[in-house]
Specification:
mainly alpha, two-stranded antiparallel sheet
């Protein structure tokens, strides 16, 4: 994977699941992930638009899980944050070469099938199942 958006989104959701009933701030989340709070706020906005979390503004504000963690499929979260193929970009091939002229078309089919399998595998796991791997303190 060529970016950290999926990992960041899952991290946010796990924290929201672990701290259900509490408002968690972007600063708290950023401290857990070890990233700038601006990165966290961008993902919170996307997760909120998708209905996974909600937030309360203000001095005592923060975000919270707004959907049942047993109904959140990891594959759906992956699709939400990843808009390009997991394998990234392809080469600019030589159209005069018998291999090069067909390489990107064949790679695209391969990449699409692999990503489809990845999403299918992720959709066998819910946020709750993933979150249960972490020890509650």
């Amino acid at each position: 994977m060529n970016n950290l958006r999926f990992a960041t989104a899952i991290h946010i959701l796990v924290l929201a699941e672990k701290f259900q009933g509490q408002l968690i701030t972007s600063d708290f989340i950023a401290g857990s992930i070890n990233v700038n709070p601006v990165v966290v706020r961008r993902e919170i906005k996307l997760l909120k638009e998708a209905g996974y979390i909600d937030s309360k503004k203000g001095k005592d504000g923060g975000c919270f899980l707004s959907k049942n963690p047993e109904s959140i499929l990891l594959g759906d979260v992956y699709k939400l944050v990843n808009h390009e193929n997991v394998f990234g970009k392809m080469n600019q091939t030589n159209p005069a070469c018998p291999v090069g002229k067909m390489m990107n078309e064949n790679l695209e089919s391969l990449f699409d099938a692999a990503e489809s399998n990845l999403i299918q595998e992720l959709n066998h796991r819910t946020l709750k199942q993933f979150s249960d791997q972490f020890i509650d303190e």
